Amino acid sequence: MNSQQSIATESIYKLLIKYSIPAIIGMMVNALYNVVDRIFIGNIPGVGPLAITGLGVTMPVMTIILAFGMLIGIGTTTSISIKLGQGKKEEAQKLIGNAITLSILIGIILTIIGIVFVDKILILFGASENTLFYAKEYINIILIGSVVNILSFSLNHSIRADGSPKISAGIMIIGCLTNVALDALFIFMLGQGIKGAALATITSQALTAVLTMTYYMSGKSNLKFTKSSLKLDKKLALGVFAIGMSPFAMQIAASMVQVISNHALKAYGGDLAIGAMTTISSISMIFLMPIFGINQGSQPIIGFNYGAKQYNRSKKAYIVSLCAATTILCIGSGIIQLFPEQIIGLFNKDEELMKMSVEGIRVYLFMLPLVGISITGSNYVQSIGKAKVAMFLSLLRQVILLIPAIIILPRFFNLRGVWLAQPIADFIAIIITTIVIIIEMRSYNKEEINIKTEFAIERDSNELI
């Protein structure tokens, strides 16, 4: 049984385990790229608190680079799944080459723009005289590696849709272990400091990009890479952008939120408050990445079965993924609320930074147990190709609700208002996402009734003949 047949017939539980566990490993490994950097940087003797704050200033830039990786990667992966579900293998195959070309072109543009305007960008994003040096040392090197960053993310993503989630996860693990080893080498043994962390990151991403390219060029992949597929197909590229626009918009929105948040944090808590948020976001990433892994694992299952009009299977895949996500987030929330000092202490033990981070994390991640409803809900809508609705749900949580909350709440609650903004936005987004999903799934019952009616009419007509 090939991978496409198994998606159409195999148990949903088995499929989600098969696709999600490698994807979860991959996403956790991807998170460790950033988390390990921040742990090492936060523990640089003498400059740790300022260095991790400088790193926090660069987060909007890194989020923008990730946004383009998700635009191409998720857009390509979902398009491949839908095309395979529709039996259009040739078009699915062309998407691989198109993803490579788009990654290279966009990566080069980001590198040029970023390096030319780096000082202005960092100051705009919240850098002060004390943190600009550390932010600039780190981000200049990250910008040089934009091409391999986007290429490694987008191609590794597509390997899952090609039916090889274990290979995808394996490549990410190799990249992460390389990053950890090089962090220790560059930062401490060679004394490169924050610059060493950036060098370790882009070197490991380059290795990941090479390994993903090798997978498609080795002849072992289900979808074969051809040089002719590097030529951009306007229709396919637009399809990738349409589907990938939702996660892209979410990440761009996240970057905007980070910029606004940095300015609010600096105004109400000083430079160290940005360092506290960097630590909090790193910890939240550890617990949220498994949910994004579940999303990635469920995408081909939902997309294929929806394309094949097996609505009950696509619906079941969503419900099971939601239950798994909620379970993980409840466990994560319990750990955070009970042991905040121990977790934060991994990043930095500065007394003032610790106190600020502990207060912030308990409030900022208060809605963590339920946020899986919003995250998996927007992923479901995206996986069935309804890009506009998915974009609305993504922007609802990150822009429409969160940005006004960050601007308004600190005026009444000072620094605590910045921490309160996220759980309030999450609560409202969860309610609206639930309503959208219920309406979407109820429409399947009507369509299934119509299909059964048409079948019965056709059968009766044939009997009469």
Automatic annotation (TrEMBL):
Classification via InterPro entries: MATE_fam, MATE_MepA-like, MATE_MepA_subfamily, MdtK-like
CDD domains per UniProt: MATE_MepA_like (cd13143)
Record's keyword annotation contains Transmembrane helix: yes
Localization per record: Cell membrane
Transmembrane feature ranges: 12-33, 53-74, 95-118, 138-155, 167-190, 196-216, 236-260, 272-296, 317-340, 360-381, 393-413, 419-439
Keyword annotations: Antibiotic resistance, Cell membrane, Membrane, Transmembrane, Transmembrane helix, Transport
Pfam families assigned: MatE
Membrane protein topology class: Multi-pass membrane protein
Protein name: Multidrug export protein MepA
Family: Belongs to the multi antimicrobial extrusion (MATE) (TC 2.A.66.1) family. MepA subfamily.
Claim: Electron transport is one of the keywords in the record: no
